[in-house]
Amino acid sequence: MYKHLLIATDGSDLAARAVTAGLTLARHLHAKVTIVTATQPWSAMTDGEGFAFDFPIEEYEKAAVAQAQRILARVSDEAKTAGVNCETVQVRDFPAEAILATANARGCDLIVMASHGRRGMARLLLGSQAARVVTMSSIPVLICRA
């Protein structure tokens, strides 16, 4: 079956449920696990005219790295408690692209992630990283919904 799961998290409560589901599945399958969180690049923080918001790049980068480290430490602790060995990865990219690139680079055969399951206008306005991953992935994707 699946031998190497990639579990994506942004540190949210919804993502935490996907992490728990992914770790439980990995434990039952005796699968290897890679946990990934993505930090959006500074360029994503610009306004429509190409000007960055009034926030120093260095502070953004430090805060983003610190947040990613907190997320990954929490998930790593959960994996240890669940009896699952895992590697953690922080990627600086847009979430869907980071998830797909990491899964491919690490040889993962299943991606586990959360989705809010938004529909209609909310999905159009807010987008869906899960939908992008499902659409673009050649690797099976397990979506955990709210």
Helix/strand order = EHEHEHEHHE
* Number of continuous helical runs: 5
Mean pLDDT: 88
Number of strand elements: 5
Query: Which regions are unreliable across 5 or more consecutive residues at pLDDT < 50?
Result: none
Determine the CATH topology: Rossmann fold
CATH superfamily: HUPs
What does the secondary structure layout of this molecule look like, with pairings?
Blueprint: E1 4-8, H1 13-29, E2 32-39, H2 57-82, E3 86-92, H3 95-106, E4 110-115, H4 120-126, H5 129-136, E5 141-145
Helix pairs in contact: 1-2, 3-5
Features:
146 residues; alpha/beta; Rossmann fold; 5-stranded parallel sheet; 21% strand
In short, what is this structure?
It is built from five helices and five strands.
Write up this protein:
The protein is of the alpha/beta class. It has a single domain (4-145), classed as HUPs (Rossmann fold). It is built from 5 helices and 5 strands; from the N terminus they run E-H-E-H-E-H-E-H-H-E. It has helices spanning 13-29, 57-82, 95-106, 120-126, 129-136; strands spanning 4-8, 32-39, 86-92, 110-115, 141-145. A 5-stranded parallel beta sheet has the order 3-2-1-4-5, with helices on both faces. Strand 2 (32-39), helix 2 (57-82) and strand 3 (86-92) form a beta-alpha-beta unit. Helix 3 (95-106) packs across helix 5. The longest helix is centred in the middle third of the chain and has 26 residues, at 57-82. The protein is globular, with a radius of gyration of 16 Å.
